[in-house]
Structure formats: C-alpha cells, structure tokens
Amino acid sequence: MSSAPNGAGSQTLSRGLRVLEILADASEPLSIDDVARQLGVHRSVAYRLIRTLEEHGLVVRKDTGGLALGTRLAALAAGVERDLQAVAVPELTLAARDLRMTCFLAVYDRGECLTFASVEPPQTVAVVAQRPGTRHPVTLGAPGKAILSILPEEQWPEGITREQRAQVENAVAKGWAETTDEVIMGLHSVGVPLTLDDGQPAALAAVFVGEGDRAEIAARLGRAAAVISHGEGSGS
After folding, report:
1. Are strands 135-137 and 188-195 parallel, antiparallel or unpaired?
2. Is 93 left (phi over 0), alpha (psi -120 to 50) or beta?
C-alpha cells in the first residue's frame, strides 16, 4: 500500500492513518525508523506524524521505547457499527458454543478479508484464537472464498489463480467454502457468505483443528448468518 492515495485529499491525514495501520499489523512495538521505512518517508516526517498521534492518545511509547497503538483507539472503536456488533456477537457466541469452535465475522475491505468480531468456544481445551482486526488477502481462507462467491467478478483482485477460481465456483455451487492450510498451516476453516445491511460483502466462518463435518458446520453458520443479515437476535 502506498503512503498516500491518488487523487485529492490530505496526504498528511492519509499518512497518519497509514501509521495506525502499520502499528495494527505489527506483532510487536515498532521503532520510528521501522515506521518511516514502511511508510516510505524520512524519519523526521514519521516523527512528526507520531508525535501528533501521541498527543491524541492514538499511539503510545512502551517502556522499551517502541511504538504501539494507544488505548484511545478502543474508545473510538466502541462506536463503530454498534448495531452490527449487537447482533453478530450473540450469534457468534451461540455458534461457537454449538460447534465448539472459534467463530468469527469477516468483512471485505479493499481486497482483504478483515475479522470484525470473533468469539471463542467455552470449555474447550484446544482453542484457536482469531483476533479482531486480523486481515489477509481475500483470495485466501474459507471466509475469503465465501466473500468472493458473492462479489461481482469485476471487483475481484488481480492474480486469481485457476485453483482459487475453482474454489470460489465450488463455494457458489454449495453455498459455502472450505479450506485447509491456507492462512495458517494446520488449521481448517469453513465459511458462509452474507451481505450486510449496507450491501458490504461479508462471511461467517469457523476455524478449527482436527476433524469436523464441513456440511454441518456450514449449516450452523448459515443459520447464524441468516439472523445477522436480517438484523435480529435469536434470543436463545
């Protein structure tokens, strides 16, 4: 991703937002030099951006001196899609309980599959974590294939392989997708598509290790997806 989009707009704002994305994707705190390198700007430019973000509580410095996202972002995020959160989380909780698998809602975001909400199953020894905010190319994983199955082909990202196209066509035929070892080695995933109220393509998915009846998993996810797409809780 470039440090600023083409066309009109604020380059400074774009770069500041990109700093937040870089820190969100990092597995550990980053130095200013790390941020500057990924942003493609001089260190002094990165420093000014970071200082502004620090003043607003969006970025903090750890004891080690590394940079990380600040807690102020959590307050901002709390206001994002409240209605969707209110409907999705209870349904994900019920599905995770029934399937004894981690279940999550993923949305399509600029060529990527972004985890919006995730619920882990209760009282399960081996739990697969799926952190909200996690993203990967939409061409990978069951939720990505499920999203592509309802996304017009002219909106697909470039570079779709013949195998990936066949997986999407299979998902269209069955109404759900399944993958193994695509995003993380050793993990299986099943995903069903749904379209949110604003028309945004999305998917409900379960991720797990070991065996599982894919059709049954898809059927349970499909029931949850139907509730979410209609915007009402199940109440069970």
Report:
1. unpaired
2. alpha
Cβ contact 88:196 at 8 Å = no
Please give the C-alpha separations between residue 221 and each of 101, 184, 204, 218, in angstroms, as whole numbers: 11, 21, 6, 5
> What secondary structure letter does DSSP report for 183?
S
Beta-carbon contacts of 188 under 8 Å, excluding residues fewer than 6 positions away, are 178, 179, 180, 207, 208, 209, 210, 212
Q: What is the pTM of this model?
A: 0.71
In terms of C-beta distances under 8 Å and separation of at least 24 residues, what long-range contacts does 157-160 make, across chains too?
Answer: 157/111
For residue range 137-173, list pLDDT tens digits in order: 999 999 999 999 999 999 999 889 999 999 999 999 9
- Two structure tokens written together for 40: 């493609």
b (16+ CB within 10 A) / e for 216-232: ebbebbbbbbebbbeee
- C-alpha to C-alpha distance for 192 and 221, rounded to whole angstroms: 7
- Model pLDDT for residues 111-120, shown as the tens digit of each residue: 899 888 899 9
d(CA 3, CA 41): 8
The pLDDT value recorded for residue 129 is 73
